[in-house]
Every structure is written in C-alpha cells, then in structure tokens.
Amino acid sequence: MADDLKTCPHCGAIATANRTKCWHCGKRIKWFKKISSLNKAGTVVVTSTLLVINLLCFFLLPPEKTGILPNLVWNGEFWRLFTCMFTHFDIGHIACNMFSLLIIGTRLERHLGSLKYLLIYVLCGLGGAIASLLLTRGFSGGASGAIMGLFGLIIVYTWITRTDIDGLSQTWTMQVLILNILFAFVYPNIDHWGHAGGFIVGALYGLILVRKVRGRRFIRWN
C-alpha cells in the first residue's frame, strides 16, 4: 500500500492515488504527486538531523572553528563555506533559525522528499555562504542563508502554481518572510548578503521545480 501513497499538489496532504478529491483541502485534482521512495511515510529525518547538528555545534564548537573567516577561507579552508551553515553566535540567533527550520523545513521535506530537500538546503546554504564571503568580507555564519533559500523556493513555487506546500501558502510565507527581513534590520550584525544569496538560489530552484512539475510549461492551473 505504501507504493500507492501520493501527495495532493494543492496542499501536500498524503492520500491514496485513486482519490479524485483531496480529503484535507477539499479541492478536486487531476493527479497526485507521487511520494519519493525515500520519504513514503512523510518522514522529516533530514530536518531533525539538521536541528540536532546545529544544536551540537552551538554548544560544543566555538564559532571561530566553523564560521567564515575570509582570510582563512582564501588561504584554503574552503570547508568553512559548508560548516558555517551550522555556526551560530548567541541563543537568539540559533533559536530564530531553528524555529523557522522546524516550521518550513518539515513541510518542505515531506513535500519534496528527504534527498531532494537535503540537496536544496545545502545548495541554498552554499549560495548564502559564497555571497557572504564575496560581499560581506567579515566573520559570519548561520543557517539563515539556507533557510532564506527555502523561503525563496516556497514563494516562487506557490506564486506560479497557485498551490500550497503542505499548508504553506504564498500569503503566509510572504508575511513570515517580511517579519524576518524587518527583524534582520533591527537586530545588529545581520549578514544581509548571506540572506540574499541563499534566497536567490532557492528562488531559482523553485523555477526549476515548477518547470519539472508542469512538463516545462508555465501554465497556471485553475
């Protein structure tokens, strides 16, 4: 039976493939999105693992060991572009990022599948790290670049397809994103370029995802 489970393209609810109307959102659908074989049960193993790694790094490793220090990166420590995704500087910093990851990461992982979700997260994080290295040129780190990339993906995808991702609508996502941006300008020492880099990568991947879902045709669903 697990092989017959699919997700509604409107809200992401899991249902059997023979349904013509979603039990969760009530919308009639022509097809269901097949659940990835790595995520048939709607697991959130990647998001859970990311949360644990971030917390362990925060409590066990000093930021100087994992964050972006431009001089060290240009001298060959390019692995910092990856480890900086798990670097946080205070309790408020990590609390805000982990709360956002918990809310949108779990839903996006269930919708896309664990493997694809992990790939997107890492690419967005690297995009933010590279933008930070090139444009900020200061000591930086955090999961914000990757998380902003997830926001970018969701906004582009929901805007073009007019569908939700497991309950994450375009309106809700935009409201939360605006709150995050306002907070970033109030809270000191925020790496805005890192946020922008991650967001752009996520938005671009959102366009790729839409093209794949629609058979490479940008046509609005009714």
Task: Explain this structure.
The protein folds into 2 domains: 1-35, no CATH class; 38-213, Rhomboid-like (Rhomboid-like fold, Up-down Bundle). It has 9 helices and 3 strands, in the order βββααααααααα. The longest helix has 23 residues, at 114-136. The chain has 222 residues and is mainly alpha-helical. The radius of gyration is 18 Å and the shape is elongated. A 3-stranded antiparallel β-sheet has the order 2-1-3, with no helix packed on it. Mean pLDDT is 81; it is low at 216-222. β1 and β2 form a beta hairpin. 59% of the residues lie in helices and 4% in strands.
Helical content (DSSP H or I, runs of 4+) = 55-70%
How many beta-strand segments? 3
SS summary, helix count: 9
The average pLDDT is: 81
Class by SSE composition: mainly alpha
Strands of the largest sheet, in order across it? 2-1-3
The rounded Rg comes to 18 Å
Shape: elongated
The CATH architecture designation of the largest domain is Up-down Bundle
Q: How many domains make up the 3D coordinates?
A: 2
- Summarize the biggest pleated sheet: 3 strands, antiparallel
The CATH C-level name of the largest domain is: Mainly Alpha
CATH homologous superfamily annotation of the largest domain: Rhomboid-like
CATH topology description of the largest domain = Rhomboid-like fold
What is the distance, rounded to the nearest whole angstrom, between the alpha carbons of the first and last residues? 30 Å
- What is the N-to-C succession of helices and strands? EEEHHHHHHHHH
Per DSSP, what share of the residues sits in E-state strands of 2 or more residues?
Answer: under 5%
* Uncertain parts: 216-222
